[in-house]
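Weekly puzzle thread! Below is a chain. First person to post its structure in C-alpha cell form gets bragging rights.
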Amino acid sequence: MLCANQLLAKSLAPEVRVNAILPGPVLAPQSMGGREKSKIAEATLLKRLGTPEAVARACLYLAESADYSTGAELTVDGGRLIA
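Winning reply:
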C-alpha cells in the first residue's frame, strides 16, 4: 500500500517532486526534566536528541540535491526507529 507522499508523487509527477521528512525527537519541551530527556536520547542509536538544524539540513538536501527523488521518506531520528 502506498503512503500519502507516494500517492502525491504519482499524481503530481513529473512537474512536482514529493518527498517527506520523518523527524525523531527534536526540541523536547522546556517543561521536560533532564531525566526524561536523557531517557528519550538513550532510545536513539546516536544517544542524543536531534536539532532543528538537522531537520533543516535534511529538507535542504531533498530540495537542492535530491533532484531525482520523489515519493521518498527521509528519516531523521538518530536511529530511534531501528533501535
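Puzzle host: Confirmed. Bonus trivia for everyone else. The mean pLDDT is 96.
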